[in-house]
Every structure is written in structure tokens, then in C-alpha cells.
Amino acid sequence: MKILKILLIAACFSAFSSCYYDKEEELYPNSFGRCDTTNSTYSVRVRKILDANCMGSACHDGATPSGWDLSTYAGVSAATVRGNLTGAINQVSGFSAMPKNRPKLSDCDIAIIQNWVSNGAKNN
């Protein structure tokens, strides 16, 4: 009985004191004023920004005709080649400011997209 009690206490202690190796930069990529643009890939970073800011309310999801279809790489690439994507997210005069009726994207999100475009807007 005493050994069972010791084993039970040891199991509980190890369950609550286990280590983990998460990196703060991966958990909170935009925290503390840091903006990591080194991994500005389409599939990992750009796609997530577009999904979060451009697909809501069926704006640019491809199912509704609202200008650009940003639901696929081909659609994003077409908007990028013409400069419409960066012009719109930077809210440059002559472009329709995006996201429409919402706050401008964060400086970090814009930097990530611009870095991706500057590096050739690859489907990576």
C-alpha cells in the first residue's frame, strides 16, 4: 500500500511539473514590437494574413464578385503582379483601401506581405 501511494504521488508530481520547449517567438511572432519577416512565405505567413483579413464577409473568397479573388495563389499572384495588393493594404491614393470598413493591417502584417512580394511572390 505504501509503494502504491508513493507511485501515485510521483505520477501526479511528474504530470504537473513536466517541461516543454515552446519558443516564445513561435508562440507570439508579433509580440514586444518584433516583426519577423524572414519567413515571409505564402503558405505559412501570407495566406494566414489574407484568410484572417480578406476572406471575412465573403469579400475576396472567390464565391462573390467583389474584385479580386484572394482565395487561391493564382488570384493573389494576379493582384500582386499589378501592384493592387500592396497598394490596397498600404491604402495608397488611387487604390481601394483594404480591408474595407476595417482598420488598416498592422505594420508587421504589411511588412510580411511586402517582403514576400519583394522576394518574388513565390508559391512557397
Notes on the structure:
This protein has 124 residues and is mainly alpha-helical. The chain has a domain at 39-124. It is built from six helices and no strands.
How many angstroms does the end-to-end distance come to?
Answer: 59 Å
The number of distinct helices, counting runs of at least 4 residues, comes to 6
Structural class by helix and strand composition: mainly alpha
Sheet of most strands: none
Question: Averaged pLDDT, please?
Answer: 80
Key descriptive features of the protein:
6 helices; single chain; 124 residues; mainly alpha
Describe what is shown at a glance.
This protein has 124 residues and is mainly alpha-helical. The chain is built from six helices and no strands. The longest helix is centred in the N-terminal third of the chain and has 15 residues, at 2-16.
Q: How is the secondary structure organized here?
A:
Elements: H1 2-16, H2 24-27, H3 42-54, H4 73-81, H5 84-89, H6 107-118
